[in-house]
């Protein structure tokens, strides 16, 4: 069933970040998108987020990794694992630590962005993509949702500046992120075979 996203003109963004100046920068960046009317709620605690999840009025949460007295990862684990909060979460990190990024993705974040490299275009693309994926999740069957979740995972892995690939039970590479493909472009180490990739000289 086709969904007309132009009917969804209002977007409500939650932000949990103790840095008021950076929060103001995030708001300005998002407001550059004139296709939607954005409203913001700035939060200060996990309880605030839980209340917002129960109300189901927000479209996405932007979560700072480094929160005083706790950290963003623990908040994310509580939201996703203990309270089954369906709201998509984008995590802002102070650096590009890939191990931290992987932990966030494993625990339910839809994306992570390094604060030092954040530009409005990147943030807006992530917000738009993940809100639309969440809207589709609410419309489609369980099988379709699994495919969308896989697509969202691939989208996030493509942003990681390290080589990552996924093997099936036959040790065929069924996914390689953009970094891996660029690194091995033109190499016999990784070859395309239909919709799959494999190592070596196997035909």
Description:
Helix content is 40%, strand content 23%. It is α/β, with parallel strands linked by helices. Strand 10 (190-193) and strand 11 (196-199) form a beta hairpin. Helix 1 (20-30) crosses helix 5 and helix 5 packs antiparallel against helix 6 (142-157). The radius of gyration is 18 Å and the shape is globular. The model is unreliable at 1-7 and 190-203 (pLDDT under 50).
CA-atom Rg in angstroms: 18 Å
Instruction: Output the helix-strand order.
Output: EHEHEEEHEHEHHEEHEE
Strand content: 15-25%
What composes the largest sheet?
A: 5 strands, parallel
Query: How many helices?
Result: 7
**Structural class, please?**
alpha/beta
Assign a percent range to the helix content: 25-40%
Put the structure in a nutshell:
The chain has 7 helices and 11 strands. The protein has 203 residues and is α/β, with parallel strands linked by helices. α1 crosses α5 and α5 runs antiparallel to α6.
Core attributes:
single chain; 203 residues; alpha/beta; five-stranded parallel sheet; two-stranded antiparallel sheet; 7 helices; 40% helix; 23% strand; disordered N terminus; disordered C terminus
